[in-house]
Every structure is written in C-alpha cells, then in structure tokens.
Amino acid sequence: MLMAHPTVLRNLIEQYEALRVLHADNGGQEARQRMDDVAYTLCVSTGTSDVDSALVAARHRLPGARPEDDSVLSA
C-alpha cells in the first residue's frame, strides 16, 4: 500500500476537523460534499474504511506520534 506523505495527512486532518467544527455535515450540499470528499480521501490515504479509523491511523503516521499510545482504546 502506498503511504501518504505526513504533510498530506496533516492537511486532511485539519480540513476534516475544520469542517466538523463548522458542522458541515448539517450544512448545505457543497459543505456536506466537501466533508464526504475529505473523509473518503482520508480513508483511501490510510487504508481504512471509516473516517474515525482513518483519523486515528493518520495521526499515528505523523511525526512525533507515539506508536505505543493506546489512548484510542480507552475512548
């Protein structure tokens, strides 16, 4: 599997989080479509099938991520 560059992953995470903060999923058609597109790209870029898993995987691939971090398991 090809791995997305950390800069690309960071950008996708930032875009998705900004759209989520703005409640794009409840917004107009363009906003919802953009959120869906970013979520899909995150999934493809990380080899996952849902956006929550994609976000976790992307964050773990960023510089400074701690591979032994199990904080996602306690959520």
Alpha-beta content class: mainly alpha
Instruction: Provide a count of the helices.
Output: 3
The total count of strands amounts to 0
Overall, the morphology is elongated
Portion of residues in beta strands equals under 5%
What is the CA-based Rg, rounded?
A: 13 Å
> What gap, in angstroms, lies between the N and C termini?
28 Å
Q: Please give the share of residues in helix.
A: 55-70%
**Average pLDDT figure:** 86
Would you kindly provide a brief summary of this structure?
The protein has 75 residues and is an all-alpha fold. It is 59% helix and 0% strand. α1 packs antiparallel against α2 and α2 packs across α3.
Give your account of this protein's structure:
By secondary structure, the chain is an all-alpha fold. The protein is built from 3 helices and no strands. α1 packs antiparallel against α2 and α2 packs across α3. The longest helix has 18 residues. It starts with 5 loop residues before the first helix and ends in a 15-residue tail after the last helix.
